[in-house]
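On clarity, I found the account of how folds are encoded harder to follow than it need be. For illustration, here is how one protein appears when written out as sequence plus structure tokens.
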Amino acid sequence: MANTRIDNVRPEMLKWAFQRAGYSEEKAVEAFPKLQDWLSGAKMPTISQLQDFASKFFVPFGYMFLEQIPTETIPFPMFRGEAGQNDHFDLNVYDTVMNVQSRQDWLEDYLIDNEIDTCQLVGSINISTPVSETVTRLHKALKLEPRWAFGLMRVDMAISILTQKLEDAGIFLAFNGVVGNNTHRTLKVSECRGFALVNQTAPYIFVNSADSKYAQMFTLIHETAHIMMGISAGHAGDGFISHDIVEDYCDRVAAEFLVPAEVIREVWNGDIKWASRKFKVSEIVVARRAHDLRLLSDTAYKAFWQEYSKRPLSVKKESSGGSFYLTSVKRVGKLFAIHVRNAVNNRQLSYTDAYRLTGLYGNTYQHFMTNNI
């Protein structure tokens, strides 16, 4: 059976498959030499060869036999960077969004069926809500006072606390810099820094862990503001200013929450790097905040921006090796993992579905749940 040639796979579907994965025809043939004969019609693939092709270009095998090319879109707008370009599609981002959405779909049913309390922040504000009021509500919901980050030694400690507080408030989080556990499929910061997937029962925030830690802080609160507005969206790239009214509002909420006007006015000494470490945010966030509050002159801000814009985009490599299980806690999300474990223990979820939802299988799944959750 595996050696039987398939004669009903159209060249258009083959082209769609490799273009979907970001390959030109030349690069696709270079990566998969048999493809050239298939495109020209000189030969047709066997089932085994076509399965290898589908795996290589991350396309479901059954799609290769479709009559019509499927329409695939991310179910919310992506702003700024490469992701904000019209009709732009990145397969790694798409697959990540679909993965989070599948988790959310299961969670919604599970939480409702078990009458588990859900997040009260979803849709709690609108574009007319004063930023100061939104931030006050968020401080209260997360039980964090304005100077909460000052006493922390490192930004990763601030991220951990913020993550725990958001999960305590009923927001599900996932951090990842690759698609699932596939380290060959990296998520570029220019394509996705993070996104909010709104749901009244199971709101979700995804953060690209390949981004700098300071940038992740801003992403967490920016996407939380989206959850509070009840509007799903994502953002990418290094652009700080957006012309979209909702994006601008979420930026201002993040800036005021992380660098409160009252606090920065009290502690400002003109040292951007010092303030960055103090507030646990990037230097550009501090500089823009100081400039908006007239603590930093136009000339000083322009000089800083010219220097800052020449810096390479700060990203970090995914952890691996001995830290796999610690990394998995971030990728899966602790709150989500707790619900999966409980559902399996209560026989409301099969191990097969638990493996699919977490991306962890067999003994790896058992070790993860036993020793890390």
Summary: The chain has a mean pLDDT of 92. The chain is about 50% helix and 5% strand.
